Amino acid sequence: MASANTNKLQVAICGAGIGGLTFALALSRFPDIDINIYEGARALTEVGAGIGIFPRPWKIIKMLGLEADLLKVTETKVVNGPVSVFQYRKSDQHEGIEFYTLVTEGSLILFHRADYQQTLLNHLPKRCQTHCSKRLRSYVQRQSGPIELLFEDGTTALCDVLVGADGLKSVVRAGVLGEKAQRSRSEGRWQEAADILKHVEPVWSGTNAYRALIPVQKLRTIAPNHRILNTPGVQYLGKQGYIIAYRISGGQLINFVAFVIQHKLENTKFNGPWMSTVEPSAFSTSFAHWEPDVQALIACVEKPMQWAIHTVRPMQSFVSGRVALLGDAAHSMTPHQGSGAGQALEDACILATVLGHPSTNRSNVAHRALRVYDNIRCPFAYKVMQVSRANGRHLTLELDEGVPVDLDSLPPKQQWDYLQRLGNTVVKNWEWAWTTSIDTSLKEALHMLESQV
Ligand SMILES: Cc1cc2nc3c(=O)[nH]c(=O)nc-3n(C[C@H](O)[C@H](O)[C@H](O)COP(=O)(O)OP(=O)(O)OC[C@H]3O[C@@H](n4cnc5c(N)ncnc54)[C@H](O)[C@@H]3O)c2cc1C
């Protein structure tokens, strides 16, 4: 096991998902840092599903030298100017209406998750040691000296900095919040301590996602003119949910996700397994009256995975002392802007930059580098959580939160105008992902770091 008695800063990463691995790669550019990755699973695998990366986080992929290899495993034709990414259809009726096209500045690049993970692993230098079957149980952080990591198998390890990239049910988050609550209690702020601890357990978003990969050939056989065969991506919208479909894996597979959404159940407890394999009937009844394109896709779905989408209540800080959270552990959000992994990439990029800065050392890391990371990333990720949540409303045809409109009873012109406003709102809400740049956050982080003495 790693010990913390070398001169190099020793960073332990808990969790080897997209966030943990990207962070390890970003940090490996700094030779004066020792990196150990501890993963609870026996082997590194990714869920059988697609993932999309917008231009803002794509810049990080470029910085990390992953672009050329990732372009080999995407179906997306990468464009730098305006590009049509999704067609929007009102589909909860016999004949759907195409009402809007989402045009981004630069492509949304689509992958199979396993291809993305494999590319990361191919680039990870040997000195980033990955230890599988190492499930963290807890950690002990004292005022000074190394942080002690305690694993489920009874072993221990030491580090100077612990990064919790351990996903939605993060053990590191429980530790960080426990430490913060303890500090509040010791200063007599009992209510604050109780409020902090409310962020430990994730909450259900009222949404279930049903994910499947459909062989393109299978769809072509039953629906040779299906629009997914010739369109980059389609979102089929209705009041009770929506479906997203796009091609991945060199055009051989269709990534299919159906969302069944009950907004009124947001922040409640989900009864049942959070992830399970189900029969298509678990979701198909919700889309029974939808247009033929949707029926053809559903007819191709076998054994979908049901994901009860949980989120972490927005936190005010991702850091406690020399422990920091990253990715879903810090800000698990609804997937309605396809930006959770992108936000993990941003965390990885900023955190690696401040930790690798020549001025960072063991004694100042807590109050300088990690504080800068927190100040930059926490508010940004919080905003993305908010807009992603709002998009979940818009994609169920709700323009203003909590004001459902009976669109089917509106005259055609009014219905069309409403749908146009909806499309414009979706774009306005989402355009940060292609009109803003990570460079601004990076510059700000370096400025904050370098202006501190
Ligand atoms: C339906 C759906 C669609 C999505 N689509 C997109 C998209 O298109 N674009 C996008 O950007 N995002 C998307 N997301 C979000 C994205 O999938 C997540 O934000 C991202 O995968 C989070 O990565 P992570 O590394 O933070 O966490 P995870 O992927 O959850 O990885 C956590 C890792 O930590 C390990 N671990 C857990 N506990 C421990 C422990 N105690 N000790 C050691 N290891 C541990 C786990 O085994 C795992 O390997 C989507 C999400 C969903 C649900």
From TrEMBL:
Q: Look up the domain of life of the source.
A: Eukaryota
UniProt keyword annotations, A-Z: FAD, Flavoprotein, Oxidoreductase
Gene Ontology terms describing biological process: secondary metabolite biosynthetic process
On whether Flavoprotein is a keyword of this UniProt record, the answer is yes
Q: Which InterPro entries match?
A: FAD-bd, FAD/NAD-bd_sf, FAD_monoxygenase
| Domain FAD-binding: start-end pairs | 9-184, 311-387
Query: Which Pfam family is an annotated match for this chain, by its short name?
Result: FAD_binding_3
Database matches in Gene3D superfamilies:
FAD/NAD(P)-binding domain (3.50.50.60)
Q: Give one GO term, molecular function aspect.
A: oxidoreductase activity
Protein name as it appears in the record: FAD-binding domain-containing protein
